[in-house]
Amino acid sequence: MAEKDAKALYKAGEKRLGTDEKTFIHVFSERSAAHLAAVDSAYHNIYGNSLKKVKFLNVLLPLFHLVVIL
After folding, report:
1. Sign of the alpha-carbon torsion through 30, 32, 51, 15
2. Record's Gene Ontology CC terms (predicted)?
3. Of 12, 18, 51, 62, which has the maximum CB count within 10 A?
């Protein structure tokens, strides 16, 4: 499941011009913190960089972290 989400995020972000925000919102709002860590690891293994380097996520990650904390 983590690998599937990593591939979906890549297709929704780095692979295309612009971003498919719905995919990012779906993955980051529906998955646990542990799963998101596994997604980041899978993303790094497949594409060679961390999700933290995806430009779109620089804006959204703080908001998702807040949601996870609450």
Report:
1. negative
2. cytoplasm; plasma membrane
3. 51
Mean pLDDT of 33-61: 81
The pair of structure tokens assigned to 52 is 């933290």
**CATH number, residue 26:** 1.10.220.10
Torsion of CA 53, 40, 11, 60, to 10 degrees: -60
Residue 58 has pLDDT above 70, yes or no: no
Q: Which domain holds residue 20?
A: 2-69
Q: pTM (2 decimals)?
A: 0.74
* Structure-token pair, residue 34: 């542990």
Q: Domain total for the chain?
A: 1
